Amino acid sequence: MVQKVCFITIGATAAFDQLLEATLSREFLHALASLEYTNLLLQYGKNGQKILERLNLSIGPGKINRHGIEIIGFDFNTKGLAQEMWCTKAAKDRAEGVVISHAGSGSILDALRIRVPLIVVPNASLLDNHQVELAEELSKQGYVVHGHLDNLPAALSESEVHRKKLKSWPPNNRGADPTGRGLAGVMDEEMGFYD
Predict the structure, then answer these.
(1) How far is the C-alpha of 86 from the C-alpha of 114, rounded, in Å?
(2) What's the pLDDT band for 18 if we cut at 50, 70, 90?
(3) Can you tell me the distance from the alpha carbon of 43 to that of 150, in angstroms, rounded to the nearest whole number?
(4) CA 63, CA 17: separation in Å to the nearest integer?
(5) How far apart are CA 180 and CA 79, in angstroms?
(6) CA distance 59 to 20
(7) CA distance 30 to 33
(8) What is the pLDDT of residue 11?
(9) Is the CB of residue 81 less than 8 Å from the CB of residue 111?
(10) Structure pTM?
(11) 20, 18, 12, 2: which is closest to 46 by C-alpha?
(12) What is the CB neighbour count within 10 angstroms for residue 63?
């Protein structure tokens, strides 16, 4: 059987329980199944295991009550999340999946590099929140789907359309990097910050 993986990451520094709860809802699991996903892989952080355990208690173990989706999770990987993100890339026995991430720049850049659909969900509970602006701008430029906690199934459907027109990262707007600043220069240019 061909697998199709949805990988969720909430990041390493701030809890984002709302994203975990939204992705473990019956509506979201149904949306995954309707788009032929087989696996949901969760990087749930230090407190997320309790949310996953609540799901297990409320609907029981196994795939039947999870719309056929196999759900596994882990708190954090000290070696980074590259291996987990690559599980969403198409391979011999795997259809291309999706990454759903908090709107942290490190996670976004990691996902963009592997060229799979990326849904970015800002964590609105953060102070001095830059995540909304980053998600909006990258969505406007066509790199990501800006997801919202209250309607992740719609973002998942949008990512299927987005899959057909993925843009490569990093962008090359002017040929060689004239600033000599590498990725920082590219990010500044893409975000509209000029010296």
Answers:
(1) 7
(2) very high
(3) 20
(4) 22
(5) 29
(6) 16
(7) 5
(8) 81
(9) no
(10) 0.84
(11) 12
(12) 12
Please name the amino acid found at residue 86. W
CB 170 within 8 A of CB 114: no
Do 22 and 28 touch, CB atoms closer than 8 A? yes
Strand partners, 91: 94
Residue 145 backbone phi and psi in degrees, to 5:
-100, 125
Confidence of residue 88 (pLDDT cuts 50, 70, 90): very high
Assigned token pair, 147: 């997801």
Q: How far apart are CA 143 and CA 118, in angstroms?
A: 8
Instruction: Look up residue 96 and give its two tokens.
Output: 């291309």
Q: How far apart are CA 91 and CA 157, in angstroms?
A: 22
151's CB contacts (< 8 A; 6+ apart) are none
